[in-house]
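Posting this for the archive.
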Amino acid sequence: MPPKRKSTTESQIAAKTAKKGGPPPDAKYSVNDTVMCKYGNVFYEAKILAIDPDDGYFIHYQGWNKRYDGFVGFTESNTRFKTYDQDEIKKIKEQVSKEKSATPKANKPKATPKTKERSRNTSTISEDDVKPQEKVVGSKPRISSRTAEKQKPDFGSSRTPKSKKEENSYNGNIVTPTAKKRTDVTIKLESGTKLIGPDLAEMLTDEQEMITRRYRLPRTPAEKTVYNLFENYCKHHNTQLTKMDKMMDLSKAKNLVEPTHINRVDCCAGLINMFEICVTSVLIYPFEKEHIKTIIENETEGEDENRLLRLSKFLGVTYLLRMLSRIHEIIEKTDIPGQNAKVVMEVCYDLARYLGDHLEKYFVADSYYVQPASDYIRRNSNLS
């Protein structure tokens, strides 16, 4: 069972805030204020426990377990916070009840599975509470680390499906594996978690929250990149990435009988090739697409001898974890021979174990993510 992470406390935040001279002067809310905070498409009653100069408001959802406590950034609060007003809540609930009774039964949507009734002391309002039609929803999100294996972060979905031509455009003349259906690009952590382990799977769950809710981006270029990880992994096994310039194709390698030192290099070369092909089509969140596209455009100006290597030398290890967490599905879509696929899986497992043992060298949460410019957030936040 993985060790529990240290939780952030109000006292620690208060000490940090005092050290930095207090909260920002333009903060709209104060400690102990009660607000309606949007989580997903629903507004819930929440209390501001502390204010961090860097991370924003530290909130607690009334009636929920403390494990759901978390930060809401100052910029993010403009869309996620609403002033708490009992009269307004009562009005909204009455209007919802009135609209429901006036709606013909034939037009009602199909019933959804019953969910556990929420605590009565928690107020909820839909995201459309300022529009003519209101909703009140009572189920709470499941974001605990205990449910990391059950979560299915969707890296590829967006509101406008891409054509095959558009998906392949990121990689020039390299044809990316395109999915037959949109649901095919949805990551599935069930099998991947067994390979990367619960601690690394929890990192992916936390990253999903960081990108889709807090609008942060992994720093690029990363302090330690995917390519650095493969280099050090091979050195750990007393070999070097001597074939990286050839970008070996795993489907054409016929000699991968077992993960020996020489074949380990073959596998690593093929995995980086696979990473370069998959990353832009199925491994990034919609909020990241503009950022990644900008990197590619900047790096491909003029001649680029190592064109396929560009992203593995820019992106951090969480991008590789996204691939490893769904490696079964990716391999099934390729023409890699069965025996080679078995060896690749063994190397993937060993690579994940190596990363877990040296994680502090490749991932430090405080410096791994950065907040993009406000205009970038404005353009892309609706895609999350």
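The radius of gyration is 23 Å. Residues 192-299+307-381 form a domain with the Enzyme I; Chain A, domain 2 fold (CATH 1.10.274.30).
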